[in-house]
Amino acid sequence: MAKGNSPHGLICARVRPNTITAGLHMLLPAALFALGVALAVFYLPRTGGRVCWARSIRKTLPVALFALAAYFQGAPVLLVAGLALSALGDLALSRPGERAFLVGMVAFASAHIAYIVLMATLGSGPQLAQWPLILLMVGLGLSTEIWLRPHTGALKWPVRGYVVIILGMGLMALGLPEARIVALWGALLFVLSDLVLSVETFVLAPDDPRRKWAGKIVWITYIAAQIGLFWGLGAL
């Protein structure tokens, strides 16, 4: 036994404060992320609930906690911004009225732009060899002029702009390195989530029974998308 390291001294030794701080710093992001996932699961059966502030808070908290987790993890600023703007979009879209809807659309469009810029710094953009996927996304965007635009009324230009931005994020994700493939799946799930949301919001009638399932599909794919982006763009 080394000099000065008596059994009594080893038993009574205390963890230094900076060691405790470092441990808490490592645990806090994981705890915030886990709580966000748990609250997202808790909200799933309530996706079709009545509009109220309690429901708005429940819907906003999961991704807001992801943003806090990314911040305390030291993730890229653009990832934190994308998650925070998404949480703002969740809050706005949970409120009634066209104005709240537009605020939510702008918030999510801004989140996608943050993700696009971050992906541009991490990847090389879509490659020519990926032309089938590129054509598929471009075709999906053009198809919205047939099945979506006629239902959007005065919102047709904001919706068109949003379609361009969300598909731009999907295309930019194609250029991410293989090590960040989780982020690619996150981006593609985001496109799918918004696709179903657009059908639910603009195409389905208010009394259509499929709206109940559409809301759940939107929430599952959306949370999975944010987890994929959280993980693949630098927070895990």
From TrEMBL:
Alphabetic keyword roster: Membrane, Transmembrane, Transmembrane helix
Source taxon at top rank: Bacteria
Cell location: Membrane
Membrane topology qualifier: Multi-pass membrane protein
InterPro entries: TMEM86B-like (IPR012506)
GO-annotated molecular function: hydrolase activity
Segments passing through the bilayer: 24-44, 64-88, 100-122, 128-147, 159-176, 182-205, 217-234
GO cellular component, one term: membrane
Family membership: Belongs to the TMEM86 family.
Protein's name in the database: Lysoplasmalogenase
